Structure formats: structure tokens, C-alpha cells
């Protein structure tokens, strides 16, 4: 999937996660708790798990692998649960401590989004993805939390306002978690040949990025069974990207074993052609 489509669908998936959380809380459970902190913890758990599982699972699915989808969903479940409970408890505590000022809850939503945004970096074991995803989640939680608060204040029907609020919250978190890594990327790969992976893009965010047929490869290519599990590596050192062959490899139609990559270089692996892009 292209990076632009990932942003679009990430926003929709986040909104669906918010709507599912609203349906569970307001239509299914209908809990009315007198203890505001218990209420915040339960709401945070449900919202965090719903948005986290969908956003994390979607991220894995965009990489073309069912196993990565389940891995992403599992990480999203853990970060969403922790982020939802911790974030909303912090928000409620600050809300009460600041004489019921909404800024307290906005801080809580920001913490919630921040922890959700860490999920992709955890799944990929990438420090840069942790930073970019965390920043995106924080911004999404802050802006989405503000939109949620505004919808509660402006819409007269409480149930409708919560439904819209949850959907908008999830949409902003999904949007910024997908958007920030794209805006801050320095190098990425795009499949330019026809086939199953055509148009698929991957942001290079690690010191060593593996490419190949295996699900354990960072950039999985599944349209050519002749590829090796790890067919190539790209190593990044101080802004310089070097391609290393682990299987038969061409660069701009010439066979190579190692090469310093430049913007618009075309890497050939079996029937698959991948363009290297850099800023």
C-alpha cells in the first residue's frame, strides 16, 4: 500500500475504532459509575483497546502479511490498554486538581495518543519509528481530545455527541500516527513493477533494513517465490544508504553485490523492481 493510502485508511480505521468503543460503552455496557476514576479507567481501557487493535492490526496488514497484522494488533492491544487506562486516569486527576479545567483531560488524551503511537516502533524494533509514531500519537490525542471535548459541549444530544467525539478522536489519532512518519521520512522504497506488491511503499527507519520473502524481513516482498527469505539489506550510516546483496540483485539493470544508493536508483530482485527514494 502506498504511504498516502496508508494515511487515508489509517484515519478511517481510527474512526471505526472510536465508534466501536462508543458502541461497547454506551450501547452494550451502559455503565454508570459514581467513582470518576473507575469510570475513567474503564473508558480508557475500552477506547484504548478498540483503537489500538484496529490501528495496529491495520499497520501490519498494509505490509502484506496476515502474521504481521496479528502482531500489530497484539502490540496495539497492549499499548492501547496501557495508554487508555493511564492516560485517562492522568486526565481525570488533572481535571479534578485544576478545578474541572478541560486542559487536564487534554493532557490525558495526549498521553493516551502518545502510548498508542509507540506501537509501530515496538512492532518494528525501530527507535525512529518510536519517536515519529509517539509524536504523531501525541498530536492526534491532543487535537482529537480537543475535538471530543468540543463535540460534547456543542451537540445537544449526549449520546450523539459521544459517538461523534469518539469517532473524531480515533480519526485524529489514526491520521497523525500515519502522517508524521511520512512527513519526516528521509528515505523510502516503492515497488514499481507490476504484481501483487505494486505501489507498496516502506519508510526506511532502521540502521539495517532487510528485504525479502520472509515475514521476518522488514520490507516483505511476496510477489515472486524465487526471492530469498532475506534477499537484500540496506544499511544506513550518517545519512548514507548502502545496498548489500544477499541474493541475485541488480541496480539500474547492472548486477551488483554492494552499492551506495542514490535517489531514484532502481533495485531489481527477480521479477520485482523497487525504487529507492531519498530527501
| Strand segment count | 11
| Helix/strand order, N-terminal first | HHHHHHHEEEEEEEEEEE
Helix content: 55-70%
Helix count, DSSP H or I runs of 4 or more residues? 7
What proportion of the residues form beta strands (DSSP E)? 15-25%
Question: What is the residue-mean pLDDT, rounded to a whole number?
Answer: 89
Evaluate the radius of gyration.
21 Å
Outline = elongated
Task: Determine the N-to-C terminus distance.
Answer: 20 Å
How do the strands of the widest beta sheet line up side by side? Answer: 2-1-11-10-7-8
Largest sheet: 6 strands, antiparallel
Overall tally of domains? 2
Low-confidence stretches: none
How does the helix and strand content classify structurally?
alpha+beta
What features would you highlight for this structure?
279 residues, 2 domains, single chain, 5-stranded mixed β-sheet, alpha+beta, Tumour Suppressor Smad4, 6-stranded antiparallel β-sheet
Describe the structure.
This protein has 279 residues and is of the alpha+beta class. The protein folds into two domains: 3-183, no CATH class; 187-278, Tumour Suppressor Smad4, CATH 2.60.200.20. Helix 1 (3-29) runs antiparallel to helix 7 (158-183), helix 4 (102-117) runs antiparallel to helix 6 and helix 6 (127-154) packs antiparallel against helix 7 (158-183). The protein starts with a helix and ends with a strand. The longest helix is centred in the N-terminal third of the chain and has 32 residues, at 66-97. It has seven helices and eleven strands. It has a six-stranded antiparallel beta sheet with strand order 2-1-11-10-7-8, with no helix packed on it.
Amino acid at each position: 500500500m502506498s504511504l498516502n493510502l496508508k494515511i487515508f485508511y489509517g484515519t478511517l480505521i481510527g474512526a471505526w475504532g472510536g465508534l466501536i468503543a462508543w458502541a461497547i460503552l454506551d450501547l452494550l455496557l451502559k455503565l454508570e459509575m459514581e467513582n470518576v476514576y473507575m469510570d475513567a479507567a474503564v473508558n480508557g481501557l475500552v477506547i484504548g483497546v478498540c483503537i489500538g487493535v484496529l490501528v495496529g492490526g491495520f499497520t501490519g496488514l498494509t505490509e502484506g502479511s496476515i502474521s504481521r497484522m496479528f502482531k500489530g494488533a497484539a502490540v496495539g492491544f497492549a499499548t492501547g490498554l496501557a495508554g487508555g487506562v493511564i492516560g485517562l486516569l492522568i486526565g481525570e486527576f488533572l481535571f479534578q486538581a485544576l478545578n474541572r479545567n478541560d486542559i487536564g483531560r487534554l493532557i490525558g488524551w495526549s498521553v493516551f495518543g502518545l502510548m498508542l503511537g509507540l506501537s509501530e516502533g515496538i512492532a518494528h524494533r525501530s527507535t525512529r519509528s518510536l519517536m515519529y509514531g509517539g509524536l504523531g500519537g501525541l498530536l492526534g490525542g491532543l487535537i482529537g481530545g480537543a475535538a471530543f471535548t468540543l463535540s460534547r459541549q456543542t451537540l445537544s444530544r449526549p449520546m450523539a455527541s459521544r459517538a461523534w467525539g469518539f469517532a473524531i478522536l480515533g480519526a485524529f489519532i489514526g491520521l497523525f500516527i500515519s502522517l508524521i512518519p511520512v512527513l519526516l521520512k528521509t528515505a523510502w522504497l516503492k515497488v514499481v513493477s507490476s504484481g501483487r506488491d505494486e505501489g507498496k511503499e516502506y519508510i526506511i527507519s532502521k540502521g539495517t533494513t532487510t528485504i525479502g520473502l520472509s515475514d521476518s524481513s522488514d520490507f516483505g516482498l511476496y510477489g515472486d517465490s524465487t526471492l530469498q527469505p532475506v534477499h537484500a539489506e540496506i544499511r544506513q550510516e550518517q545519512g548514507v544508504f548502502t545496498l548489500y546483496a544477499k541474493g541475485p540483485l541488480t541496480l539500474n539493470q547492472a548486477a551488483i553485490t554492494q552499492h551506495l544508493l542514490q535517489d531514484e536508483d532502481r533495485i531489481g530482485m527477480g521479477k520485482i523492481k523497487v525504487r529507492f527514494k531519498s530527501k
